[in-house]
Amino acid sequence: xxxxxxxVVLAVATAGCARFDDRLEAPFTPAPGPGMGAAPPSSPPGxxxxxxxxxxxxxxxxxxxxxxxxxxxxxxxxxxxxxVAVASLGxxxxxxxxxxxxxxxxxxxxxxxxxxxxxxxxxxxxVAPSPDFAQDRLVYLLVVGDGPSRVERLARGDAPRTVxxxxxxxxxxxxxxxxxxxxGVGSELLRFPGFRGIGTADDPEVVAxxxxxxxxxxxxxxxxxxxxxxxxxxxxxxxxRIIWTWPDQRSAGGCAAAEDSLALALPDGERADxxxxxxxxxxxxxxxxxxxxxxxxxxxxxxxxxVLLGGTTNKRGGSPVPTDDRAVILPRTGGGGGDAxx
Length: 342
Fold this sequence. Notes:
disordered C terminus; 2 helices; globular; 25 strands; five-stranded antiparallel β-sheet
């Protein structure tokens, strides 16, 4: 089976660096071996010796084909409904489709169905695993756009349960910060310190207001960041201050946080931007990732050892290709690879 590190090496070879953490930027080079650097031995005169036919089972397996097989090695899941949100499960990830489906994706096999919520007349906007997912296998989703916004708890093989109803909104984000359920909905950021995963989430505390139209939450340790759209354009920020603004962008997707960088999905820009960070402040210009390669990148999360995983929403307002929508490890722009959307 492929490992996440192997897939990243393949993505680097075809489309630039797929790493998100600066520590992982070292180029992939083979280890030196015996005779490296020495001249190759000369061939003996005469015809070459005959070669033995391959033994049974040694033949190269033919490449997979089919309508949902994407030739890009960075693509790890295909033929999904619009992937509005992504959340890390270590080297695997949850992807949430706007239509209510939740899947677990990895580089080792096809997407695995986890469950489904009914968005009714709305859509799913965010997904987050329980802080104790390894034990309780619970997933939380935010549903918006159909009356009150709802936080739904989903267990495999069980019907979803509504744990909170909030103000109507068209977008939002969801995360656990120090094990506390935290929700961005409309222009507010709320937390539920009394919620322990059982029953309903009551008595929310307002962390911040007037944040713009919140579109995603992301965490690194105890640090919480959010993406939003304001009258100044798309922004990435903490609860108390704006870190960076994209005045030319009027849509924002999810965000991803690392110790020294933040990333924001920009659906209309058909890319994600990675912003270097120091002490909670930007320390340089954002770098465009996978610009124009996969269409509308909306879901975003850091998985594994700092690799960025994006989800596309080309079936909703974009120009889908036959394998859309997709979950994809995001390579940096440049370095070859061609147009991945054809």
